[in-house]
Amino acid sequence: MIAVRPGRDGMPAHWQLVHRSAAGLEVLATAPIARTPGLGWQQAVQRLRDSDGTLRVTPAMDGCFRWSLTDSAGEVIAQSPPVNGDSGSCRHAFLVARRAARTVLGGEVPEPGRSTQPNIPITDSVS
Prior knowledge:
Elements: E1 2-6, E2 15-21, E3 24-30, H1 41-49, E4 54-59, E5 65-70, E6 76-79, H2 87-105, E7 122-124
Parallel strand pairs: 4-7
Antiparallel strand pairs: 1-2, 2-3, 4-5, 5-6
């Protein structure tokens, strides 16, 4: 099951896009906790679904990677938890989150054989 649930602090702008299965709960994307309550979850998940922003892949302190989708001002719209082992799996996790956003909101799902790669700028901050 794919769902959007409120973040731990209960604020509507602090949402989590999750996948629940028999194996447990996996957080696919979240709003950054620092986000001011201006962009609601529907708008943020819609922008994720539509790849409306710039994808950034950055390493975390523990050697894992996280993706973030940012707007033109560099503000984070949505991000993954820092759990991806490398930048390639991090990009794949972004595509999985986009597909989950389509499931939650509806929208076009690529036809078989059609590219699922987002047509958005990608910035790697890997050093």
